[in-house]
Amino acid sequence: MKVKCLWISICCLLVAGCWDRTEVNDLAIITAASVDKAKNEEITLSVQIFLPRALGGGAGGAGGTGGGQGKLTTMRNSNGPNIADAISKLQAKIPRQIFWGHCKVYIFGEEIAKQGLADHIDFLVRHPEPRNRAYLYISKGEGLDTLDITPSLERSTAESLREYADLHIGMAVTLVDFRNMLRGESEAAAIPIIENGKKLQKPEDIQVKAVMVGTAILKRDKMIGSLTLHETRGLLWLRNEMNKAAISVQLNGVEGIVSVNPIRTKTKLIPHLENGKWSMLVHVDTEGDVVENGTRLNLMKPELLALVQNAVRADIEARMRMTLKVLQQELQTDVVNFAAAFHREYPKEWEKAKGQWEKIFPQIEIHTQINVNIRRPGLISVPAGVPQEEIKNDE
Amino acid sequence: MSGNPRKWWKANKGRMQQKHVPSHTPLEKNIARNEEILRTLYTNCSDVVFRSFLIFGTTPALIIYIDGLANIEEMDARVLAPLMQGRGNTEWRTEDFLQKVIPISKWQEICSLEECVESIASGYPVLLIDQQEKAISIGLAKWEKRNVEEPVAEGVVRGPREGFTESITVNTSLLRRLIKTPALKMERREIGGYTKTCIIVTYIEGLVEPSLVTEVNSRLSRIEIDGILESGYIEELIEDQPSSPFPQILSTERPDVVCGNLLEGRIAILVDGTPFVLIAPTTLFSLLQSSEDYYQRSLASTAIRWLRYFFTAMSFVLPSLYVALITYHHEMVPTSLLISMASSREAVPFPALVEAMIMEVTFEALREAGVRLPKQVGAAVNIVGALVIGQAAVQAGLVSAPMVIVVAITGIASFMIPHYIAGISIRLLRFPMMLLAGTLGLLGIMLGVIMAVVHLCSLRSLGVPYLSPVGPLRVQELKDTLVRAPWWMMDTRPKLLGEANPHRQAPGMKPGPSNGGDAT
Question: Which three-class secondary structure state does DSSP give residue B174?
């Protein structure tokens, strides 16, 4: 009896098994994808496919160490009314099964972002293969150009874009973040913008030009404007996403520049509503190190360090105010998500006001409270390379 | 031979056991008659020597021994010389006299033909004297045996270097030298219709649960077999769950391991003719413990135990994990790793499952060949093996480089199990695991692991749960399972089946300034 059961179960396994087996060699591993606007209300779906053969493993010892020459990825695209349809057409051009599980970068063309991203995002979050943690970008011009670039440092553009996101020099927005932003109270979203791929084709271009060029501001799912890289920094401060920066300040009446690296920063939004007057207190706590001191000041003196702290405070405030001015006056879009802060603090008033939030937001009065604490003046105390007698110990 | 084999056995038992000697046949007074019977028994046995002589020139006597098993020099000097050269009177017939003349300590009088044959077979020469109904078995056995050497399969860096040999008397003496108390009991019995192999069940009275001894003895007495050539026969015949891949009885060739287990209340079974001694009851965790664990510093032992547990698990699931990930769950591999794996698998013509099977089977074949083959050609096989499952296979595009790494790690991992024999059976389980992984992916691996755990939970060794002390959980005993607690913490013995003597040592032996001299 036992033996019979065993045989039946073994047969079940072997007969049923392997039907959905896919070897890695049968997969076209997509590393990045872009969606662009095409003619006739169609879209162009472009994918960057990893070429396993190019890495030089497998056959022959000769190729074993020779990896790296030539491109490791290739780009294919096809048109269709939506992503799902475009994929099925794309599959006809690729002999291997398209695999989305490792696609970590989605790029949307500027045009299609202005038209609205909702339809496309729906596919990406509904289909089981694409990752929720994939990063979103909006490309100036068309996204597919970016996919064709051969980066010099990383294996593919997908990988370099992912690394940029990990560096947090600009916004880093994943699919799931984007969904949450759109579902939030302010219904506004921000997605980093990358340079037009056409301008980055040649290696010399890549050497000079920055890839991250700013932040796209989306109302609902439509792009309505953008922030420059400089303004993006302010947005990062406001959104409590700042973690790597160098703040360089010029002290009043002192020659030279002092640079400070904030190590720990925390931004709190404290909403206030009184007599129908909406105001917001932005509370920033930051700690940092001095990384470069171009002045003759001896920063070991607390009074002089206080000068630097004051200057940094002013700089942070200026950055935030500049960004808020653009957001409140020009774009009138609440990507900082003040709305959520008000919702939490004043739920009843929010319920009444949420219909007119677009009118209220530009009117909000901003107050700031910024604490800057410079803990360490770095490895050296007095300015380096300056004769002892030139060092100033007071103002 | 048709029909019920059991009935057939019962009917023909006598014939099959080949009892040439009728039991309890008393010796005759007439020495010529005795000689005739014995000579008929030993027809065509060229190694049996019959030496007739006259005691003091008058009484005929006969000494029978097996050439090569008896100590001939001693026999000539101490038995034949005094008996043949002495001067006789009639007084010599008393047994007291004989004992005076023959200065030998191991001396036994035997009355039956059966005992005679047994004594001869064990190497003790038998002295038959005319007009006597008793024969004398003289304890002058001597045969070639191996010296006590370091065990090959169970090496240690720190610890005793002696191992058991093929001679059971040497083995018992090794045990007796370590445990000197008279409470160390050794019950002797013979099993095997033809081989009459000597089996000794040993335990420490007062520590062992008496019912355990009864159980072992009753299981041993069930055995009716032609011959026992190795303790493996006994092991398979007394196991609780014979069809399980896991060994439920530990075998070791180290006296210190046996003694350690005896002191924990277990039973050891020594079998003549093999250096491997059985220990029961056994748990899964004792298979994963080495004697060196107890000699090293406890911290190091704990770390090594964890390493061993981890790699044991690895040897069980690593190839199947690889197969499952690469055939079904590509999204679970980090991108850059998948890309590397994809490029190395690019030229491989087989599916991952087939690739893994080929490599694992090849590895097993190489291992087996390495054990069997004559030492002179060992180097050749090593070189060929290194090529087959190494660089050449990868370069030929038959297997991928990651697969070679997986197979190598699995191979190393399975040898981390200190008991080689146990290692093999655990290692073989990875083949069904690979099949499950190849057909059902991670789900299949989970299924396999669950089946293995359920099976392990249901296993018992002489009634002791195989997974104890983890399942059923006995927190007290985890000190010697999850970790190896320092000796001053090992106050209690494992409970096993009962609590014959729960305390191993005085509590509070932790060394320290407050604990020197007048301990509280």
Answer: helix
